Amino acid sequence: MMDPIPARMRGSAIVDEAKALDQLVDVAGLTLRWREAIADHAVCIIQAVRTGASHGMKEEFLGEYGLSSKEGVALM
What we know:
Elements: H1 4-11, H2 17-28, H3 32-51, H4 55-64, H5 70-75
């Protein structure tokens, strides 16, 4: 039996990005407040990584979500 996550990813390769994002937001069921908090936190993490504030953060992230994991492939 095929793993459902990669199968869904392959099936979504030609889906309109805006529509796909809207569907994911609906499935997550997050309020606008939660989505804003998540986005703010993501910006902080990205800024820290870009400025090199935590050199080990990049390696930790790649170690946690490397391309050898399903999560890493999904993030890429």
